[in-house]
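User: Show me a protein chain along with its predicted structure.
Assistant: Here is one chain, sequence first, then structure tokens.
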Amino acid sequence: MDSRKSEGNDEQPLPATAPLIRSVLNQVFVLLAFFGLTAVMTWPWVTRLRDAVSDEGDPYMIAWTLWWNYHQTFTDPLNLFHANVFYPYRYTLAFSEHEYGIALLCFPLFAMGLRPLTVHSFVTFAGFAFCGYGTFRLTRTLTGSQRAAWIAGIVFAFVPYRFHVLSHLHYLFAGWIPLLLEALVLFARRRTWGRAAWLGIAFTMNALTCTTYFILTLVPLSLSAGFLLVHYEIVRDRVFWLRGAAAIGAAMLVLLPFMLPYYFVMKLYGFVRTIDDVAVNSASPLNWLVVDGRNKLWQGLGEGVPGSAHHKLFPGLLPVLLALPLFFSTTDEPVAVARDTNTSRRRVLTFLDAGALVGTIVMLVAAGYTGSTAELFGIEMFRHVTAARMLFLVMVVVLVRSSLAYPNAWRWTREQNLIDSLRASKRGDAFALCLIWVVCGFLGSLGTNFFLNTILFDFVPPFRAIRIPTHWAMIAYLGLAVLAGCGVELLAQRFKAWRPGARPLLVNVVVVAVALLLLFELRGAPLGFVRGKVFPDEITLRLKQTSMRGGLVELPHDLGRALPHRYMLRAADHQKPLVNASSSFISPLTWEISQVTGTGQIPLKFVDLLESIPASYLVIHNSAVLPERRLDYESFLVKAVASGRLRFIRSFGERDDLYAVVKTEPQAVSEAPLPFAGEVRDWSQLNREEPANLVGRFRAWGQAVYRFHVASFGQMPRYAEFIPDIEVIGRGVVVGSENEHANLDYRLSRFADEWAAQPRFQARFGSLTNEEFVDKLAA
């Protein structure tokens, strides 16, 4: 499983044609095999690649993102981040993941004329296969075993968490992570320019695909590089440092134009994450026992765990069991450690020991003063000297101390220090590397429940962009997948040693059986999905043909029903500047539109907002307006049209109404009369036209009349007697007027006086004293 020594630095001659063709065919076969497994594990997704999406929310937004990257690359690449959403803001592509690395692979699909949602559906499907292929390559490079590679590829491709992030393509499409680690290992083994170039490409593509994974992989990748430097004894190899620095430096130059817009967005609009954002999205160790509901075998596992609705990190039972044999394989026998006689070295070690002891004491004291304002010499010491920071410092000191020499009390190893242990590892580089990734991923997923994220958030600026630390889990899954593959290979080797006469075919049959068990445990089929809105509707086609001086506002704006995501998908069709959209960060204008139009009466000042943006057109999707909100929209539109500030153009399709903002588009021509009555109407008239209003906007007043009947006569009112009472109260009350509520209060007060004067009420209550009257109503 290990290639201990460097293979040299000289460039090797190009392989002969035949071996090269065989290698390419082998790569193609592996990738196609994982496509086949994906079809089985996600069935029937493959039969609906044209329009399958997990939901109608984020997939619509991501489909738009893929399209925008393609569109802008070939029309105006220098303004890639100035997208046609969140108009009139700049750098709006940086409000979320830009996903350029995924879009880059999709350019041929767009060039073929495929719709954005179809491209998204296909790439989501391909994401599973790509993850399996990348892990296959990594494991085969680390172990030289095809058996281990297939097992590891299956685990990483179909780990339940991948189904949990099915809506977020950039988190699902994680195949560049194993390819990046493989590139690092290959370069450490042979430091050629070709392998350095591949390391730079993998580093770049991982960052372009998902900014979150780019940031999260920095820690385990750095630790892995440190291990490889020691393991292959190349710490002083100038070729490694020069060529590696050139590869990563070139990658950073390529990435700079993709990273700077996020800095600009932070400075321009104040879009930053807080430690409270991280805390809310932090998992606990128990969340590693919660499984995504799409997993068919373990469905329902961990439902009672706090936070189970959001953090579903269970990797499956079999992958963990398959990795365990590696931890119980033969190791060195413990021996006594020789006494260190170097005086200077002993002084350094004593200093480090003392530092670790003092740091531990300070850490314990700081833990006790957490949240306290205790002062020392007038300084609130424990605002800065926190338990988490001291623990981090102690761990660094212990690591340095162990790298120089183990304490004499540590008698479980032959080696003198940590560096010797890394060089002498009998399990090979696969075990050590994967252990690094498992530990980093698991601890990182705990967020603020473990000090690692707090330290990184405080001192490493890129980590302040990570809102959901549970995405660290993908780092752990990669390590676990390779460990599972290595565990299967170890068991196969033990089986052959136990039964020397066993045929190789028998061993392979057993491994295939393990793979089938994995597929059974991790399966998501039959996978639920919805049929997305692939093709543009009638109003979208009209908007595409309409010139605009400003932006486009579409209502209703309801994030809970993912309507802005649908507007973004259609923005890929009409290509006009959309004002209100959805993303990880929301523009202030979008929030204002949501607040002004979200509930209750829409004020006429909303037109002021439209004119100030400036917006050219307003689209009302009547089919998406809730029944109880229709009067709010109609009353606003009647006043806005009557004032001459909005101009109705006409209706399209399923009552999608188009209005021009006259100040921005004075030349816009009305093509049809308003689709609803344009005159001012009172409540009584609206109730006659649509009785459903009684359970909508007029519910509170309807309930008041209902209680008049029940309290007075002890029975529910009949419809025939209830409606006339409602009309009496609502007569003359103009919907949307400034004195609407005051008028209603007055009408209800008059109704109460008239109600108490009617003969039936007087016959029941007229002879009672005030006290008896109150007691009777209360009864």
